[in-house]
Amino acid sequence: MADGFSGKIKEKLIEAKQKWAENGRLLTGQADHAHENRLPPGQREVKDWPVLDLGITPHVGTDDFRLTIDGEVENPVTLDFGQLLDLPPFMAKNDIHCVTSWSRYDNHWQGVSALSLADLVKPTSDARHVLFTAHDGYTTNVRIDQFLDDDVLLAHHWEDAPLTEEHGGPVRVIIPKLYFWKSAKWVRQITFSKTDKPGFWEVRGYHNNADPWTEERYG
Ligand SMILES: Nc1nc2c(c(=O)[nH]1)N[C@H]1C(S)=C(S)[C@@H](COP(=O)(O)O)O[C@H]1N2
Ligand SMILES: [Mo]
C-alpha cells in the first residue's frame, strides 16, 4: 500500500527509551489530578515541533492511502482518501504532550472525528479496546472510551496545510488527552476488539493508559 519507505529503525533510540522507562525518567511524584496547570508535571513547552518515530518514514500518497476499520464493528470498512474526506469535516485545537518531555501548545487540526468514524462502522456492544496499526509497523492501543472522546480525530491537515510526511501524513491519529505515543502516524488500520492488545511502546515499559497529568509514563 505504501509506495516505499526511507530511513531505518533507530535501535539506539528504542533502547534509550526503554532505559528511561526502567529508570522512571522525568517522574516528579506531583500528579495534577485537577488539571490546575496547562503544562502536565515533568513537561516543558517547546515552540518547534519535534519529529519522533522509529526511524522509518513510509511514503503513502493520498492516491494509495487506504484505511481499514475492522474487528468488533457491525460495518467494517476500507476507506480511500476521498471517502475519508466525504465524512463530516472536523476541526480542533489542542496541545501535544510527548513522554520524552516536550509539550507543544495550540495545534490546529483538520480531519475527521473518531465519533464520525464510529457512526460509520458502528462498534458492537462488546467492543472495549482499539488497536491502531501504522505503515511503519508501529502499533498502539487505547480503551474505546479514550478513542470515542469528542476531541479525538484522524488529522490530515495541521495549521491549514496538508500534514507532512514526517509528522504522519497523509493521515494520523490525534488523541489530545494522552501522551503523544498513543497518536499513531501513517495509520492504516483501526481495530476494535473485546480484548486489549498492548502496542509497540506498551510492551516496552510504557504505561497502558498514558494520562500526562497523573504521570502515567511507565508501567
Ligand atoms: N506510526 C508511528 N506513529 C507514531 C510513532 C511511530 O514511531 N510510528 N511514534 C509516536 C511517538 S513516541 C510520538 S512522540 C509521536 C511523534 O509525532 P511527531 O513526530 O509528529 O511529533 O508519534 C507517535 N506515533
Ligand atoms: Mo513520544
UniProtKB/TrEMBL annotation:
Which InterPro entries did the record assign? OxRdtase_Mopterin-bd_dom (IPR000572), OxRdtase_Mopterin-bd_sf (IPR036374)
Residues of the Oxidoreductase molybdopterin-binding domain:
57-201
Fetch the Pfam families from UniProt.
Answer: Oxidored_molyb (PF00174)
Protein name in the entry: Molybdopterin-binding protein
* Organism from which the protein derives: Thalassospira xianhensis MCCC 1A02616
Starting at the broadest rank, the lineage of the source organism is:
Bacteria, Pseudomonadati, Pseudomonadota, Alphaproteobacteria, Rhodospirillales
